[in-house]
Design brief:
It is a single chain. The protein is mostly beta strands and 115 residues long. The protein contains no helices and ten strands. The chain is 0% helix and 48% strand. The chain has a six-stranded mixed sheet, with no helix packed on it. Strands 1-3-8-7 form a four-stranded antiparallel sheet, with no helix packed on it. A hairpin with a 5-residue loop joins strand 5 and strand 6. The radius of gyration is 13 Å and the shape is globular.
Length: 115
C-alpha cells in the first residue's frame, strides 16, 4: 500500500523559509515523476512543482525560483525548499506522483505565513 507522509510545515513570517519533506513507502519512487501540491482555504488543490524520475524540475509561475523541489531515491523522500514566503503561500501542502493518483493523497502539512 502506498503511503505519502508530509512534514515540515509550520508558522513562518513573510520572507521566511521552510523545508518540507515527503516520505514515500510502498512505491518504487525512482520510477515516478513526483510533485508537490497545495490547497489554500476555499480554493482547489493546485500544482506547485514537479520533479521527473531523472530529476528534471519544473515550477509553476506563482512560485518561480522561490521554491526548489528535490528527491532522494535511496531515502525515498521528496523535498520542497521554500524561500521568500508570502501570505499567498499559506496552504496545506501535499506530495503525490505527477500526475497525481487520487487514492494516494496524504494528510498534508500546514504552512502558514503570517506576521
Amino acid at each position: 500500500q502506498v503511503q505519502l507522509v508530509e512534514s515540515g510545515g509550520g508558522l513562518v513570517q513573510p520572507g521566511g523559509s521552510l523545508r518540507l519533506s515527503c516520505t514515500v513507502s510502498g512505491l518504487t519512487i525512482w520510477l515516478h515523476d513526483m510533485g508537490w501540491y497545495r490547497q489554500a482555504p476555499g480554493k482547489e488543490r493546485e500544482l506547485v512543482a514537479t520533479i521527473s524520475s531523472d530529476s528534471s524540475t519544473s515550477n509553476t509561475d506563482f512560485v518561480k525560483c522561490r521554491f526548489t523541489i528535490s528527491r532522494d531515491n535511496l531515502k525515498k523522500t521528496v523535498a520542497l525548499q521554500m524561500n521568500g514566503l508570502n501570505s499567498e503561500d499559506t496552504a496545506v501542502y501535499y506530495c503525490n506522483k505527477y500526475p497525481p493518483y487520487n487514492t494516494w493523497w496524504g494528510q498534508g502539512t500546514q504552512v502558514t505565513v503570517s506576521s
